[in-house]
Amino acid sequence: MAWEAFGPKNGSASFKEFDQRIRGYATGTGSTLDIGCNVLVQPFFFERKDWIALPNWPKSVMQGKTFDTETEEGAWLWNEVQQRVQLKEIQNLLQEPVAEYGDGPRFGELFLTRSRLGQGAFKVLVSEAYGKRCAITGESTFPVLEAAHIQAYSEGGPHRISNGMLMRSDFHKLFDAGLVTVTPELRVRVSDQIKDKYFNGKAYYRLHDQPLTVMPERATDHPDPEYLKWHLQERFVG
């Protein structure tokens, strides 16, 4: 899941290399290897000239290292960070105003295509919330599962668990095409156009008007009725 979500941003050029590097740190034998995955949401970075030289920093750190501000070292580090952040805020005030987009920057630096910020974290969090099972069918074969936005990201939908559902890839495509939706009452609705245009769809119509098979444990992660209403009104073709 870490590789599918972030690819080479994990620090390796290929999945094979990524897998081999991780196994180099593992203890014991076996083909199954579970790793922890810390997802950083909206991290910020200092320019190289503002980097903080940490005393006694071991080169072999492989896990997140924390500092307690109650200690001398932690308090010093926190003070250094605050000074740099405050300086950056002052510099921003002196620059031309920039349009704001509510949930932070929606796109990264322009290159050949626009790189969406937060997409990898969105997939990981939605996958975990749904227990790596399709919300509609309960399918648990992870390679065919995808994190679907309810309200399209390109049309203002945020990277939030409540604006996402984990779906089998065919349902994700139908959902994005407006041929399948989920009502605010959390029931599956399948468009008549599948039968009218493609003369098939029996496997999908069996799920018509059925409740979602899988729901997140936390109520705050459930599909937001407002996003579901948007999809029903703006995307579903009936």
Explain what the structure shows.
Helices cover 32% and strands 7% of the residues. With 238 residues, the chain is mainly α. The chain has a domain at 119-234. A two-stranded antiparallel sheet has the order 1-2. Strands 3-4 form a two-stranded antiparallel ribbon. A hairpin with a 5-residue loop joins strand 3 and strand 4. The relative contact order is 0.10. Mean pLDDT is 83; it is low at 96-102 and 106-117.
Concise account of the structure shown:
The chain has 238 residues and is mainly α.
Question: Which terms would index this structure?
Answer:
two-stranded antiparallel ribbon; two-stranded antiparallel sheet; 4 strands
Order of helices and strands: HHHHEEHEEHHH
Query: What strand order characterises the main sheet?
Result: 1-2
> What fraction, in percent, of the residue positions are helical?
25-40%
For the largest beta-sheet, the strand count, sense and barrel status come to: 2 strands, antiparallel
What is the approximate shape? elongated
> How confident overall, as mean pLDDT?
83
Number of strands: 4
Strand content: 5-15%
Q: Please state the structural category.
A: mainly alpha
Provide the fold topology.
Layout: H1 2-6, H2 15-23, H3 72-94, H4 119-129, E1 145-149, E2 164-168, H5 169-176, E3 180-182, E4 188-190, H6 193-198, H7 202-205, H8 225-234
